[in-house]
Structure formats: C-alpha cells, structure tokens
C-alpha cells in the first residue's frame, strides 16, 4: 500500500478517499518528516552559533586602537585627496563647457551673419533680374 489507496478491497470511492492520508503517500510523509527534522536541527544550530570579532593584532587594545586610528587617518587623507581631485575635475569640465558654449554662440552669430548676407545678395539678384526683364520688355 505504497500509494495509500485501498484498491482491491471492495470499498467505495468515498471510503477510499477517507482512508487516504491527508499527506499523500507514505514516502511523501517520511520525506517531509525528515525535512522537518533537518530544518529544526538547522534552526537550533543557527541560534546557538556566536560571532566573535578578534583584533587583527595579538596584543593589548591600545595597539589595536592605534592601528584603527592610523587606518582612519589614512582614510581621511584619501577622502581629502579624492575630493580635491574631483573639485579640480569639475572646474576643468566647467571651463571646457564654457569654452564650448562660447564657441557655439560665436558659430551661431557667424551663421546668422552669413544668412543675412545671403538674403541681401538674393534680393540684389532679384532686383537685377527684375530690372533686366523690365528693360527687355520695353524693347
């Protein structure tokens, strides 16, 4: 009876359903029971474990404090150097941006002047064409 059914005993389907355990087959039940035991064991093992932090240097706490202070000073120095480097980069980027902006403005002004000159030349050619057509039509 590995599957939990009562086949071959002449029971109705209602009686068969009542006799099937709610957990499925016996193998499934045993498997879940083993998993539950393993989980409980892991929880107990986890709750009893302790984390200990040890000083990197064997000796008294003053030595370790000196090392920590030295490391903090090195970090502060590194942060100050990085900050000044970033400030310099920002300044350089700003200067380059201003230079590029000024160049774009001057190019725009140049293009506007060229467009104005082209419009004047176009009007001059149209006037010359009009004068020539008027002169030719009088003949």
Automatic annotation (TrEMBL):
Q: Where is this region: Disordered?
A: 1-30, 44-68
Superkingdom of this entry's organism?
Answer: Eukaryota
Compositional bias segments (type: Polar residues) = 46-62
Its protein name is: No apical meristem-associated C-terminal domain-containing protein
Q: What organism is recorded for this protein? A: Popillia japonica (Japanese beetle)
Q: Source organism lineage?
A: Eukaryota, Metazoa, Ecdysozoa, Arthropoda, Hexapoda
């Amino acid at each position: 009876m590995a599957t939990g059914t009562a086949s071959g005993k002449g029971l109705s389907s209602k009686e068969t359903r009542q006799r099937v355990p709610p957990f499925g087959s016996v193998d499934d039940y045993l498997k879940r029971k083993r998993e539950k035991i393993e989980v409980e064991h892991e929880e107990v093992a986890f709750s009893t474990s302790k984390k200990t932090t040890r000083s990197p240097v064997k000796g008294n706490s003053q030595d370790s404090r000196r090392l920590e202070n030295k490391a903090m000073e090195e970090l502060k120095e590194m942060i100050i150097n990085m900050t000044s480097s970033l400030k310099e980069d920002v300044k350089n980027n700003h200067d380059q941006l201003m230079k590029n902006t000024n160049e774009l403005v001057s190019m725009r002004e140049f293009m506007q002047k060229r467009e104005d000159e082209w419009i004047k030349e176009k009007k001059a050619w149209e006037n010359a064409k009009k004068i020539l057509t008027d002169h030719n039509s009088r003949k």
